[in-house]
Design brief:
The protein has one domain. The chain has about 200 residues and is an alpha+beta fold. The protein is globular, with a radius of gyration of 16 Å.
């Protein structure tokens, strides 16, 4: 079994700049579309998480249309004493992470929050979540979002850059499942849809 935890390198497929963007700026939309095209190109190579048989018929990943309302500014509340959480993986094993703190943001007037985690083995941050689209138009075990390095003064979360764990493509990968504490009771119609989902 292969283990996969996709990080910022996956989001910046072809060297496009990541980070804060003005949601109303055409450059933000153009960068998003370039990154999506770059990811499709990568998935057609032998570095793809797809099997050779899947690659032979791969027609591109499917996404929600870019939605500037899901490019949000969040505040970060660091954990006073980061504790550990054991993530169940797609094969029933466990991965250990630290709760780094809570990201709080608004979407269309609604207050929302997600826990940001830090790897127990490195300084990388991790934000898995599920929402009411999970298991329907999006992957049932949740999706991932790279939070960068959270800053107490505020940091950007662009849910249009939400992506699937490699387990969404085939079962040969071992991936952490989004924990129940990071379920959003809203439909996040932004980012990557379930593999093979056409609508």
């Amino acid at each position: 079994m292969k283990r996969a935890l996709v990080t910022v390198a996956v989001l910046c497929w072809i060297g496009a700049a990541c980070g804060s963007r003005d949601a109303g700026d055409p450059a933000w939309r153009a960068a998003l579309e370039r990154d999506r095209a770059g990811k499709d190109a990568l998935f057609r190579t032998d570095r793809s998480p797809l099997t050779p048989a899947q690659r032979s018929s791969f027609a591109g990943l499917v996404y929600f249309a870019p939605d500037p309302s899901w490019n949000v500014r969040a505040t970060f509340e660091p954990a006073a004493a980061p504790d550990t959480i054991r993530f169940v993986t797609s094969t029933g094993s466990f991965d250990v992470y630290l709760r780094a703190g809570r990201a709080r943001f608004q979407h269309r007037g609604r207050d929302l929050a997600l826990t940001v985690y830090r790897s127990a083995e490195s300084d990388s941050y991790f934000l898995p979540f599920s929402d009411t689209t999970s298991g329907e138009s999006t992957y049932g075990a949740g999706r991932y979002l790279d939070p960068g390095v959270p800053a107490v003064g505020g940091f950007d979360l662009d849910f249009n850059r939400t992506y699937n764990p490699y387990c969404a493509y085939n079962s040969g990968w071992v991936c952490p499942v989004a924990p129940a504490e990071n379920h959003l009771d809203v439909a996040v119609r932004a980012g990557e849809k379930n593999f093979g989902h056409e609508h």
